[in-house]
Here is the input.
Amino acid sequence: IGYGVQGPGQSLNLRDNGFNVIVGQRKGGKTWDKAVADGWVPGETLFEIEEACEKATIIQYLLSDAAQIEVWPTVKKHLTPGKALYFSHGFGITYKERTGIIPPADVDVILVAPKGSGTSLRTMFLEGRGLNSSYAIFQDATGRAFDRVVALGIGVGSGYLFETTFKREVYSDLTGERGTLMGAIQGLLLAQYEVLRENGHTPSEAFNETVEELTQSLMP
Here is the structure.
């Protein structure tokens, strides 16, 4: 469900690995068109969200955190006994009292969280490599949650799977993304740039030795 950040990479990798996959996405707009361009066929493997949830045995809930809250009533009514609800981020479940995402007791609730974007997941898969992922089981109603989560973890293109919990995944993800990627790196580059400027370096030189050093050399 959802064809945004993680949806394309995970669904295409699963399809290529022989899984029976259908995509649920709101009809119309660029995202629907992208799904069609990727080979998903309306009425066969591409459906509106509610119809996809009704047909599915495992629902991969790959919408944004905000969209998960909005769409939850639609998803919940199709979580019949024995189905599985799959996440790639534990926010909705960890803060379920606030999000309202409280699954019924008779379904499995599992998580596979690739440590990178869906684009990276797909690219590495096509190169014959895997992207490491964490996995977690929040609820094992069927006794098959472990088998399901490991099979899906391998199917989406994970190179290595390491165990976690929904709560730990959320805390580590928020720390890593907001702390390192969106905070620490920017702060270090800014501090280095300012030191170089204070010591007589031109704006261009200071920029080249900070931002471009990172983006063009260390992390191209």
About this structure: The mean pLDDT is 94. The first helix runs from residue 7 to 16.
